[in-house]
TrEMBL record:
InterPro entries in UniProt: YjdM, YjdM_C, YjdM_N
Species annotation: Mesobacillus jeotgali
Superkingdom per UniProt: Bacteria
Family statement drawn from the similarity comment of this UniProt entry: Belongs to the YjdM family.
SUPFAM superfamilies: Prokaryotic SH3-related domain, Zinc beta-ribbon
Ranges where the Protein YjdM C-terminal domain occurs: 46-112
Protein name according to UniProt: Zinc ribbon domain-containing protein YjdM
Annotated Pfam families: YjdM, Zn_Ribbon_YjdM
Length: 113
């Protein structure tokens, strides 16, 4: 027999299944464990080079000179990117840089301001 998780509201160990839901008889809390798992997988945490959690709208600064692929220009250390947007992919930050326009950056090369 598989062990059911404790109630997230009151931590009671006497939970039981009722169809797709789990129910706690002590506090009458009902929850869907499949929906909680799906929500946990969708929320990917993106951190900067110092380990700070980034979110949409943050301002970040570049921590090293970055060569721009396909050109001879360089994004200098300390360049600020305001109002960033987090996206999926290898380059997980989308932003606008002064003098360069729209760019995608890797979070490992920025720090939160």
């Amino acid at each position: 027999m598989s062990k059911l998780p404790n109630c997230p509201k009151c931590s009671s160990e006497y939970t039981y299944e009722d169809g797709p839901l789990l129910i706690c008889p002590e506090c009458a809390h009902e929850w869907d464990p499949a929906a909680e798992m799906a929500n946990g997988e969708d929320s990917r945490v993106i951190k900067d080079s110092n380990g700070n959690i980034l979110s949409d709208g943050d301002t970040v600064s570049v921590i090293k000179d970055l060569k721009v692929k396909g050109t001879s220009s360089v994004i200098k250390i300390g360049t600020k990117a305001k109002n960033i947007r987090l996206i999926d992919g290898d380059h997980d930050i989308e932003c606008k840089l002064e003098g360069f326009g729209a760019m995608k950056l890797k979070s490992e090369f920025v720090k939160k301001i």
